[in-house]
Amino acid sequence: xxxxxxxxKVVDFWNESAQRNFExxxxxxxxxxxxxxxxxxxxxxxxxxxxxxxxxxxx
Length: 59
Known about the structure:
Helices cover 81% and strands 0% of the residues.
């Protein structure tokens, strides 16, 4: 049997993970590691969007 997911927990997971990735991007930017910074910015945006999808679709 499938277990019902806690939507807010999943949204929080994606948002917290995105925040950590953005903090890493800031660190890399300050170190002039721009290509790596861009990757972590992309990763953070992707995770924010995943959180929004979960929030809106409740799945």
